[in-house]
Every structure is written in C-alpha cells, then in structure tokens.
Amino acid sequence: MGSLPDHANKARYVRALVLREKGDLAGSVAALRELLAKAPEYEPSYGALAEILSRSGRMDESRDLYLKALSLIEKALPPALATLEGGVPMTYSTYSEMRDLVERLTREKEIVLHGLGDLASPAP
User: Fold this and answer.
1) Which SS3 state, helix, strand or coil, does residue 24 take?
2) What's the pTM?
3) Closest by Cα among 50, 45, 33 to 6
C-alpha cells in the first residue's frame, strides 16, 4: 500500500483533531487509526492518539504510541538538520520547507516527551 500524499495526511490529521475538539473522541480515535494504517510514518498522529488514550486511562497503549512517535521523530530530525545546516545551496523555498520541518519535529518531540513525562507522574 502506498503512502498518502503529505497534504492528504495533514487533512486527515486536522479532521481527527476537529473531531476531538468537538468531543467525538471515538471518531477522532478511529480517524487517527485510519490515518496510521494509511501513513504509518506520519508521526503527529501517534502523539495525538496517545494523548486521547492517556485521558481514557489506556496508559500502556499511550506509552507505546508516544515511543513510536519519538522513534519516528528521532529518525527524521538528524537528516533534516543536516540538510538545513549542510551548506548545500538550495532555493529559499526548499530552505523554508526544511526549516519548518525541523521546527515542527522539534516541537513534536517536546510534546511527546512531555506526554511521556505525564504518564510517569502520578495523577493529582
């Protein structure tokens, strides 16, 4: 099965987040699981699903999802940084895309690490 184009991944991800914000957690979980089945490399979906499942008390599954997200982020971040900092000539558009990717991955890593930390902390 081929991966979805990036814009399709983003659209499906945003749809899942909208469902979550509307309170349709079951719909959001289903949309995220469908996205992961079609685009298993799309790391934001793992963190979003982990966050929903942790609120539902499904800590082991949430931890596994956070760890998968972290693994994907740590795999993608070094080459993105190397491209950005490599001194290789690139168009402004390419530079901008790489900078945005590094910023997104860095932000997602912080969110994932925070989520993992919350799982390790006892509930108040």
Assistant:
1) coil
2) 0.86
3) 45
